[in-house]
Amino acid sequence: IMNWYYQTHIGLDMVYFWKRILGIVPAMLPAIALGVACGFFLPGWATRIALTFNDIFGQFLSFVIPLLILGLVAPGIADLGKNAGWLLAVTAALAYAFTLFSGFGTYLVGRAVFPALLEGSQAVLPDDAGAALTPYFTVQMPPLFGVMSALVLAFVLGLGMAYTHSVKLKGVMDEFLSLIHISEPTRQEAI
Predict the structure, then answer these.
(1) Structural contact between residues 156 and 84, judged by C-beta atoms closer than 8 angstroms
(2) Confidence of residue 130 (pLDDT cuts 50, 70, 90)
Protein backbone atom coordinates (compact mmCIF):
# COMPACT_ATOMS: atom_id res chain seq x y z
CA ILE A 1 0.00 0.00 0.00
CA MET A 2 2.75 2.44 0.95
CA ASN A 3 4.75 1.65 -2.21
CA TRP A 4 1.70 2.42 -4.33
CA TYR A 5 1.13 5.67 -2.41
CA TYR A 6 4.75 6.76 -2.77
CA GLN A 7 4.70 5.93 -6.50
CA THR A 8 1.38 7.58 -7.39
CA HIS A 9 1.04 10.50 -4.96
CA ILE A 10 4.56 11.50 -3.99
CA GLY A 11 6.24 10.61 -7.28
CA LEU A 12 8.99 8.34 -5.99
CA ASP A 13 10.14 5.65 -8.41
CA MET A 14 9.55 2.60 -6.21
CA VAL A 15 10.56 0.10 -8.93
CA TYR A 16 13.97 1.80 -9.12
CA PHE A 17 14.15 1.82 -5.31
CA TRP A 18 13.50 -1.91 -4.97
CA LYS A 19 15.85 -2.78 -7.85
CA ARG A 20 18.57 -0.83 -6.08
CA ILE A 21 17.87 -2.40 -2.69
CA LEU A 22 17.69 -5.95 -4.05
CA GLY A 23 20.79 -5.30 -6.19
CA ILE A 24 22.82 -5.14 -2.98
CA VAL A 25 22.08 -8.78 -2.08
CA PRO A 26 24.40 -10.43 -4.67
CA ALA A 27 27.25 -8.17 -3.52
CA MET A 28 26.69 -9.15 0.12
CA LEU A 29 26.88 -12.92 -0.36
CA PRO A 30 30.63 -13.11 -1.21
CA ALA A 31 31.41 -10.73 1.66
CA ILE A 32 29.50 -12.93 4.11
CA ALA A 33 31.27 -16.05 2.82
CA LEU A 34 34.66 -14.32 3.10
CA GLY A 35 33.88 -13.25 6.67
CA VAL A 36 32.95 -16.79 7.69
CA ALA A 37 36.08 -18.20 6.03
CA CYS A 38 38.30 -15.60 7.72
CA GLY A 39 36.76 -16.48 11.08
CA PHE A 40 38.04 -20.05 10.70
CA PHE A 41 41.57 -19.27 9.54
CA LEU A 42 42.70 -15.89 10.93
CA PRO A 43 44.66 -15.71 14.18
CA GLY A 44 43.14 -14.31 17.40
CA TRP A 45 44.68 -10.83 17.04
CA ALA A 46 43.12 -10.34 13.60
CA THR A 47 39.75 -11.49 14.90
CA ARG A 48 40.05 -9.01 17.79
CA ILE A 49 40.70 -6.19 15.28
CA ALA A 50 37.52 -7.19 13.45
CA LEU A 51 35.66 -7.33 16.78
CA THR A 52 36.91 -3.83 17.64
CA PHE A 53 35.63 -2.47 14.33
CA ASN A 54 32.36 -4.35 14.80
CA ASP A 55 31.87 -2.90 18.29
CA ILE A 56 32.61 0.69 17.21
CA PHE A 57 30.34 0.39 14.17
CA GLY A 58 27.59 -1.18 16.31
CA GLN A 59 27.82 1.68 18.81
CA PHE A 60 27.63 4.20 15.95
CA LEU A 61 24.55 2.48 14.49
CA SER A 62 22.88 2.46 17.90
CA PHE A 63 23.48 6.21 18.09
CA VAL A 64 22.36 7.03 14.54
CA ILE A 65 19.28 4.82 14.07
CA PRO A 66 16.95 6.87 16.33
CA LEU A 67 18.12 10.03 14.53
CA LEU A 68 17.41 8.41 11.15
CA ILE A 69 13.92 7.47 12.29
CA LEU A 70 13.24 11.01 13.45
CA GLY A 71 14.73 12.58 10.33
CA LEU A 72 12.89 10.34 7.87
CA VAL A 73 9.51 9.82 9.51
CA ALA A 74 8.67 13.31 10.80
CA PRO A 75 9.08 15.14 7.43
CA GLY A 76 7.32 12.27 5.66
CA ILE A 77 4.27 12.56 7.91
CA ALA A 78 4.31 16.36 7.59
CA ASP A 79 4.33 16.04 3.78
CA LEU A 80 1.11 14.02 3.92
CA GLY A 81 -0.81 17.13 4.99
CA LYS A 82 -4.26 17.00 6.56
CA ASN A 83 -4.69 13.28 5.73
CA ALA A 84 -1.63 12.43 7.85
CA GLY A 85 -3.64 11.33 10.89
CA TRP A 86 -5.86 8.96 8.92
CA LEU A 87 -2.98 7.48 6.89
CA LEU A 88 -0.87 7.11 10.02
CA ALA A 89 -3.70 5.29 11.83
CA VAL A 90 -4.21 2.91 8.89
CA THR A 91 -0.47 2.26 8.59
CA ALA A 92 -0.11 1.67 12.34
CA ALA A 93 -3.10 -0.69 12.34
CA LEU A 94 -1.67 -2.66 9.41
CA ALA A 95 1.76 -2.81 11.03
CA TYR A 96 0.23 -4.01 14.30
CA ALA A 97 -1.88 -6.64 12.54
CA PHE A 98 1.09 -7.96 10.55
CA THR A 99 3.23 -7.99 13.71
CA LEU A 100 0.62 -10.07 15.53
CA PHE A 101 0.24 -12.38 12.53
CA SER A 102 4.01 -12.85 12.24
CA GLY A 103 4.51 -13.34 15.96
CA PHE A 104 1.75 -15.88 16.40
CA GLY A 105 2.70 -17.63 13.16
CA THR A 106 6.30 -17.95 14.30
CA TYR A 107 5.20 -19.22 17.70
CA LEU A 108 2.85 -21.83 16.26
CA VAL A 109 5.37 -23.06 13.70
CA GLY A 110 8.01 -23.26 16.41
CA ARG A 111 5.69 -25.24 18.68
CA ALA A 112 4.86 -27.62 15.85
CA VAL A 113 8.30 -28.09 14.28
CA PHE A 114 10.96 -27.71 17.01
CA PRO A 115 9.94 -30.69 19.17
CA ALA A 116 10.38 -33.00 16.17
CA LEU A 117 13.71 -31.40 15.20
CA LEU A 118 15.15 -31.47 18.72
CA GLU A 119 13.87 -34.89 19.74
CA GLY A 120 16.64 -36.87 21.43
CA SER A 121 19.19 -34.04 21.27
CA GLN A 122 20.78 -32.25 24.18
CA ALA A 123 22.20 -28.74 24.38
CA VAL A 124 25.94 -28.94 24.98
CA LEU A 125 28.22 -25.93 25.37
CA PRO A 126 31.77 -26.19 24.06
CA ASP A 127 34.60 -26.31 26.61
CA ASP A 128 35.90 -22.85 25.73
CA ALA A 129 32.49 -21.11 25.83
CA GLY A 130 33.72 -18.67 28.49
CA ALA A 131 36.93 -17.80 26.63
CA ALA A 132 35.36 -15.68 23.89
CA LEU A 133 37.53 -13.05 22.23
CA THR A 134 36.92 -9.40 23.13
CA PRO A 135 37.63 -6.20 21.19
CA TYR A 136 40.88 -4.33 21.87
CA PHE A 137 38.89 -1.27 22.98
CA THR A 138 35.36 0.09 22.89
CA VAL A 139 33.96 3.57 22.36
CA GLN A 140 30.67 4.24 24.13
CA MET A 141 28.17 6.18 21.99
CA PRO A 142 24.85 6.06 23.85
CA PRO A 143 21.87 7.09 21.71
CA LEU A 144 20.20 10.41 22.49
CA PHE A 145 16.89 8.54 22.84
CA GLY A 146 15.58 5.07 22.14
CA VAL A 147 14.03 3.82 18.92
CA MET A 148 10.49 3.86 20.28
CA SER A 149 10.97 7.38 21.65
CA ALA A 150 12.24 8.48 18.24
CA LEU A 151 9.22 6.95 16.54
CA VAL A 152 6.73 8.57 18.91
CA LEU A 153 8.54 11.93 18.67
CA ALA A 154 8.54 11.67 14.86
CA PHE A 155 4.79 10.92 14.86
CA VAL A 156 4.04 13.85 17.18
CA LEU A 157 6.25 16.30 15.27
CA GLY A 158 5.01 15.10 11.88
CA LEU A 159 1.34 15.36 12.83
CA GLY A 160 1.97 18.73 14.48
CA MET A 161 3.69 20.09 11.38
CA ALA A 162 0.93 18.71 9.14
CA TYR A 163 -1.92 20.26 11.11
CA THR A 164 -0.33 23.61 12.00
CA HIS A 165 1.50 24.10 8.67
CA SER A 166 4.63 24.96 10.66
CA VAL A 167 7.03 26.40 8.09
CA LYS A 168 10.01 26.89 10.41
CA LEU A 169 9.96 23.44 12.02
CA LYS A 170 9.30 21.84 8.63
CA GLY A 171 12.34 23.71 7.27
CA VAL A 172 14.50 22.40 10.12
CA MET A 173 13.29 18.84 9.55
CA ASP A 174 13.87 19.16 5.79
CA GLU A 175 17.44 20.32 6.48
CA PHE A 176 17.89 17.35 8.80
CA LEU A 177 16.50 15.10 6.06
CA SER A 178 18.99 16.53 3.58
CA LEU A 179 21.81 15.61 6.00
CA ILE A 180 20.56 12.03 6.01
CA HIS A 181 20.43 11.95 2.20
CA ILE A 182 23.83 13.59 1.74
CA SER A 183 25.21 10.49 0.00
CA GLU A 184 22.39 10.34 -2.53
CA PRO A 185 22.74 13.11 -5.12
CA THR A 186 19.54 12.16 -6.96
CA ARG A 187 17.47 12.38 -3.76
CA GLN A 188 19.20 15.62 -2.71
CA GLU A 189 18.11 17.31 -5.93
CA ALA A 190 14.51 16.34 -5.19
CA ILE A 191 14.72 17.95 -1.73
Answers:
(1) no
(2) very low
